[in-house]
Amino acid sequence: MTELPPYDLPPHVAAFLSPTSTRLVLHRRGSTVWDVRSAAGRYALKLGFPASPTHEWTALAPAREVSVLRALGRGDVFEGRWDRGTWGVQPWRTGESLWDRWAPVRESATPPPLADAAACAAALAELHARGWAHGDVQPAHLLVLATRADLIDLALALGGDIPPEVDFPFRGCLVHYEAPELSRSVLDTGHAVPTPEADVYALGASLLISATGRRAVVYPDDAPRVEQRQAIVEGRYRDVTVPGPLGPLVDAMLSPKPGDRPTAGEVHAAMATMPG
């Protein structure tokens, strides 16, 4: 499917938000995201549309995410329908993605800041403590601030009741961060179930690639998704080369066996005792 130009704010959504300014954030894989400022505040507006004939579920993702946010007790969130799918509005989250924040680490091959890693682990542990799995942990979804991190993009999260009209099966996530048990299930059945254990693997893969620029699993960049998942299942792992005390913990988080991985809470506790 040929990618169409970014979708502008639908008229009824623009009337609802009354924006004073808008900025396009991204437009890819079935989602157009706008940074919207208005007299009422600053918001992220997500417009969902079918990414391809086999990925029509992306049209439902914005409304599903709002349902997750409401279940988690988040306020000031809104959703609705537009011509191509659903839309969702939530307060804008500030912060720097883990990937961007650790660019100097990759360039200098120095140990990454433990405080950043611990903040990411704490955010994930908090979500798990509330009975939810994220399902799509990756560096772009970890926004790091001075004293905490926010875990964003919860459209694939699992843990509570979702209205059936906006729900859809989990068909995997960005494969760089997909745990082997998820890849195996997607290859075998076409779908999988997000779990806290898979989230911990994804956090480990996120820390590894953000610190070193290297994926956890070896496969060609241009390989078909099926081949990439097969490489994950077969365990074509790189050695974990994160400098400093974080390396052995990341290695444990990337264990191919879910039961051998530490929990997010254990990861956070271990980071709190590390020197530096």
Descriptive account of the structure:
The chain has about 280 residues and is α+β, with helices and mostly antiparallel strands. The protein folds into 2 domains: about 80 residues, Phosphorylase Kinase, domain 1 (2-Layer Sandwich), CATH 3.30.200.20; about 180 residues, Transferase(Phosphotransferase), domain 1 (Orthogonal Bundle), CATH 1.10.510.10. Helices cover about 35% and strands about 15% of the residues. Strands 1-2-3-5-4 form a 5-stranded antiparallel sheet, with helices on both faces. The chain has a 3-stranded antiparallel sheet with strand order 6-7-8. A hairpin with a 2-residue loop joins strand 1 and strand 2. Helix 5 runs antiparallel to helix 10, helix 6 crosses helix 8 and helix 7 crosses helix 9. The longest helix has 17 residues. It is globular, with a radius of gyration of 19 Å. The model has no long low-confidence stretch (mean pLDDT about 95).
